[in-house]
Amino acid sequence: MPAPDPAPDPVPVPDAVDPLLAQERAHLGASRSALRAMREDAESLDIRDVTANWVNAAVLESQIEERVKSLADLAHTPLFFGRLDYLHRVGGAAPESDSADRDAGDGDGKDEGDRFYIGRRHVHDAHGDPMVIDWRAPASQPFYGASKQNPQDVALRRRFGYTAGDLTAYEDEHLSDPAEAVRSSKLLQAEIERPRVGPMRDIVATIQPEQDEIVRSDLGGTVCVQGGPGTGKTAVGLHRIAYLLYAHRERLARTGTLVVGPNASFLHYIEQVLPALGELQVKQATVDSLVAGAVEVRGTDAAPAAVIKGDARMAEVLRRAVRSHVTLPAEPVVVVRGSRRWRVPVYELEEIVQQLLARDMRYGAAREALPQRIAHAVLVRMEEAGEAPDDRVQNAVARDAAVKAVVKAVWPPVDPSKLVLRLLSDPEFLAAHADGLLSADEQKTILWTKPARGVKSAKWSPADAVLIDEASDLVARTHSLGHVVLDEAQDLSPMQYRAVGRRCSTGSATVLGDLAQGTTPWATDSWPEALRHLGKGDAVIEELTAGFRVPREVIAYASRLLPVISPGLAEVASVRESPGSLSVREVPGAGPESGSGHLDTAVIAACVESLAHEGSTGLIAADARIPHLAEALTAAGLPYLSPGEETTATARLTLVPASLAKGLEYDYVVLDEPAAVVDGEPDERTGLRRLYVALTRAVSGLIILHSAPLPKALGA
Fold first, then answer.
1. DSSP assignment, residue 489?
2. Does 231 carry a binding-site annotation?
3. What integer pLDDT is reported at residue 168 of this predicted model?
4. Which of 23, 338, 539, 599 is the most buried (most CB within 10 A)?
5. What is the pLDDT, as a whole number, of residue 69?
């Protein structure tokens, strides 16, 4: 397919020269006024006479407060970014209401179809007529999907350009006009390349058709998105949850939504995206925080132990250990009711216990059912004797001391933390339940060398907390949410997938990741396998291969690593060609004999060079080099931030450990000593994957500085 013709540059012009620009600015001003009126209406609501009690009043006040927050007008966030003029009226949707403005729109007076301004949220005027249509509404979908080949009844698609919140330019496509050639959008390209300052922003104005298809996929199914660096998979996941909240608000308000990210820095980076789209109720967590609470995590595991603890076989080990607490009854139970004694023999008690075991219920639920089953057996005998007991009698029998004693002996309570403590401390207990699952060497690897005295004194690791979470679910079912977005999913262990999957067992998920960026020893190499552990084996797997963030030269250089780190994975095809965006510089005289002084000097100079450009700069280095580079930056008088901290006018440089670079992006990146990044990991493959991540964080330019030889996989 031939490349589209470049569109003429959308040059801002004075209002007097272009009355259409003045008209669009007027609509923007009127829309802001309408939004302000909507907010004032919400703030003025008086609920004193419409609530029956203080509980209802508190709930309603909270809802109104959230409504007021969602109506905030962010000065530097445009209310609308596009416009659609349809050839005909759109069924079921109200048109933009100002007919005089409609007739003036294109100067021909013949526009009889609907017109919609597309924005981040809905705005209506005093009469309830829409002035801005939410980007998630069905009438907005053609803004993303319509084309010259399939105009979807769109006569005109107009994109708007903004500078500091002011509307300064526009660009038109007449999709239904066969005489107009296909052209690429300069405004779209400029928005994609706009400097990255502050936290992650939404991509609602630049969503591509293949991304929009994923965003609008149905709530009922789970979607897995494999996407290389710069393909927008994280943004797609966040916009998908925003879309689902729009399309299924009542249902998800009841069941809840959650975004799971790799670390706190990443969550801080993305936390403003959903509020900018008007969604304030989505919770965020890491996997570690998701399973926290039962114990305090104070320890770490060596990689071999962490890999085994994260293996799916541990789920069966735990299941066996939990069920081992059940013992068959050895004596009959005798219940005294008044002058009568009712006896349930041992064989019948055994049948009840075996039936409950066969149902494979949660341990705690079965334990609660056991006294009722025994009580039912007693009631059968009462009825056979001519009595007519009711439910109250059955409940009373279930609470009888004799029945309680049987339940305590046969089906005792299980504390998940104590269970895992015993598994990791008692070789015989572990061997009994890992038989045929874990080898003797594997069992020895996960056993603590110095067993803890108790739950509180144990130095639990993150992998241990996941085991406790699994055991807790075996005892009592974990609450399930309506939808979960799981980002950087390739780094999770099978047991971590299970932990997340429990949180959406009755809901759906959006799974985001890149197999080439797996940087944990337990990282998955197969999405079908990962989805099976998540409990979503029927998920649809989509692949994004068009890159919009990383320049073509940079991604091509980083992709040299793919044959080694992820054979067979498709290379990202960047749509952005940026000559000069990649610079690989060897620093002479910086070897082991002379120390790192020359390299430090070169790194500082490269940071200064990058900061001369507009936007953010990230200095990425091996974790072990971070303290040294921090001292060098301080000595050079260069202020710097930590990952997740927002850039300011005086601090646009972030010092980033390679282990925390995943998911972040900067306009310019200085990468310090690639070999050190690789050497900082337990094996070469993981190290090269870590390097792949570091190489692909730049939006506009990447400077690589090295004194040691570059990894052979880079072909340099």
1. G
2. yes
3. 87
4. 599
5. 77
Distances (CA, A) of 352 to 53, 347, 348, 358, 588: 47, 9, 6, 10, 79
**CATH 2.60.120.260 assigned to 210-293+485-547:** no
Phi, psi of 297 (to 5 degrees): -85, 115
Structure tokens at 325: 């607490």
Location of structure tokens 């031939």: 2
| Token pair belonging to 312 | 């799916």
Q: Is 449 annotated as a binding residue?
A: no
Task: Say what the pLDDT of residue 50 is.
Answer: 61
Per-residue pLDDT, 570: 86
Q: Which two tokens stand for residue 661?
A: 């670079």
How far apart (Å, rounded) are the C-alpha atoms in residues 404 and 602? 75
- Helix ranges, 80-122 (H): 99-104
Q: What angle do CA 205, 211, 213 make, to 5 degrees?
A: 110
Give yes or no for a contact between 416 and 450, defined as CB atoms under 8 angstroms apart.
no
Beta pairing partners, 650: none
Does the annotation place 696 within a ligand binding site?
no
Q: Is 161 annotated as a binding residue?
A: no
Place of tokens 């419409």: 50
Q: Closest Cα to residue 546, out of 211, 48, 152?
A: 211
CA dihedral 353, 357, 362, 363 (to 10 degrees): 50
What's the chain's Rg over C-alpha atoms? 31
Q: Which two tokens stand for residue 371?
A: 């006294």
> Which residue numbers in the chain have pLDDT < 70?
1-17, 48-52, 54-55, 59, 75-76, 91-112, 192-200, 590-596, 716
**229 belongs to an annotated ligand binding site:** yes
For residue 590, the one-letter residue type is: A
Label residue 403 exposed, middle or buried (CB < 10 Å: 0-12, 13-18, 19+).
Answer: buried
The domain ranges of the chain are: 5-193, 210-293+485-547, 333-410, 569-714
Is domain 569-714 in CATH 3.90.650.10, yes or no?
A: no
Q: Where are the alpha helices (DSSP H) in 292-359?
A: 303-309, 313-323, 346-358
E-only strand ranges, 632-683: 653-657, 666-672
- The two tokens of residue 599 are 């390299």
Host H or E run for residue 59: helix 54-70
Q: Is 232 annotated as a binding residue?
A: yes
* Tens digits of residue pLDDT in 566-593: 998 889 988 877 888 999 999 987 554 4
- Distance (Å, whole) CA 248 – CA 255: 11
| Token pair 């069905």 in the structure block, residue | 138
Sign of CA pseudo-dihedral 697, 702, 706, 710: positive
Q: What is the pLDDT of residue 199?
A: 61
Domains 210-293+485-547 and 569-714 share a fold: yes
| Residue 256 marked ligand-binding | no
Residue 101 burial by Cβ neighbours in a 10 Å radius (0-12, 13-18, 19+)? middle
57: its two tokens: 């009043």
pTM: 0.84
- 680 annotated ligand-binding residue: no
Nearest of 629, 617, 696, 692 to residue 657 by alpha carbon:
629
Q: Which tokens belong to 214? A: 């994923």
Q: What is the DSSP letter of 514?
A: -
CA 706 – CA 459 distance, rounded (Å): 39
DSSP state of 248: T
**Alpha helices (H) in 548-625, listed in sequence order:** 552-558, 562-565, 597-611
**CB neighbourhood size of 614 (10 A):** 12
Report whether 115 contacts 102 (CB < 8 A).
Answer: yes
Angle at CA of residue 202, ends 648 and 93, nearest 5°: 140
Q: What is the pLDDT of residues 164-208, one digit of tens each?
A: 778 888 999 999 888 888 777 777 777 766 665 556 677 788 888
Q: What is the rounded CA–CA span in Å between residue 503 and residue 479? A: 6
Q: What is the pLDDT of residue 195?
A: 62
Per DSSP, which regions of 52-114 are E strands?
80-86
Name residues whose C-beta falls within 8 Å of residue 664's C-beta, 6 or more positions apart in sequence.
265, 266, 269, 618, 643, 656, 697
In 281-345, which ranges are continuous DSSP H helix?
287-291, 303-309, 313-323
